[in-house]
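ok, trying the design again with the full structure, not the truncated one.
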């Protein structure tokens, strides 16, 4: 087990915002009179990621597990290699949203400044503000794919919905789960954006053992960014309930990542067996 650092200890102490809100709605169903009622709505808010006092990105996320998100984003975007390079992490309310203020190593901060990446992210948008094709298609680290049985994949798919409380309440969230090699879901994070959900999962895993004895499962399509994020986190297998893109398949092939899509009860498609 990795040694805890200052921000890990703070994570357990800081209360996080609510991820849902109540709203009055009118239900129209089967031609019956309109029925007013209270409904549960998934919250979406801007979160600024601030490194050594400089704002680098503003992302629209569900404000839950924001420290996991900030850590996972930092790793999956190559800003830091692992949790040990973030010395402090604090979530603060900030006007209409929140800010996550981090102190990172001077070497990593210098590299971040040189990238000159100031991006404003929307749900499902990962390239807003990217300045060049080289920044968009970064070199992807090689990973080691685990041996994964069909039974384990099906087991994880059967459990997915049961582990998504925000989706059950609101119908508006994506889920990203970490599963063991038997297909049991061990950790799950949710968010309005699929990239954000995966970043939250990566952040949650970053202070545990290296992720080489399991696989990631996501409730969305497989974009190349999802493959790229997994590779930066050292995850060797990625399963999704929907389809991959051509670039996701090509990138997985080059990196050695096991890529599986169209996960359904009794069926899934292996696009790259590594």
């Amino acid at each position: 087990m990795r040694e805890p650092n200052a921000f890990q200890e703070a994570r357990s102490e800081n209360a996080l915002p609510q991820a849902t809100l109540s709203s009055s709605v009118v239900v129209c169903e089967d031609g019956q009179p309109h029925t007013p009622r209270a409904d549960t709505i998934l919250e979406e808010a801007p979160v600024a990621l601030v490194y050594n006092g400089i704002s680098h990105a503003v992302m629209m996320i569900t404000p839950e597990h924001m420290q996991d998100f900030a850590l996972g984003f930092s790793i999956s975007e190559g800003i830091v290699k692992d949790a040990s390079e973030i010395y402090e992490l604090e979530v603060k309310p900030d006007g209409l949203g929140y800010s996550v203020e981090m102190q990172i190593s001077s070497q990593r901060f210098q590299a971040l400044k040189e990238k000159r990446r100031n991006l404003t992210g929307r749900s499902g948008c990962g390239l807003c503000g990217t300045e060049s094709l080289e920044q968009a298609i970064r070199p992807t680290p090689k990973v080691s794919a685990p041996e994964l049985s069909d039974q384990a994949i099906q087991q994880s798919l059967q459990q997915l919905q049961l582990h998504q409380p925000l989706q059950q309440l609101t119908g508006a969230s994506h889920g990203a789960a970490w599963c063991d090699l038997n297909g049991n879901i061990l950790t799950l994070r949710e968010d309005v954006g699929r990239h954000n959900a995966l970043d939250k999962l990566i952040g949650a895993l970053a202070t545990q053992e290296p992720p080489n004895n399991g696989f990631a499962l996501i409730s969305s399509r497989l974009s190349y960014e999802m493959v790229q994020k997994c590779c930066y986190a050292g995850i060797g297998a990625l399963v999704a309930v929907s389809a991959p893109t051509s670039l996701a398949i090509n990138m997985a092939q080059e990196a050695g990542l096991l890529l599986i899509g169209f996960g359904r009860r009794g069926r899934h498609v292996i696009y790259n067996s590594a």
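Keeping the full-length input from now on. Residues 150-272 form a domain with the Cytidine Deaminase; domain 2 fold (CATH 3.40.140.10).
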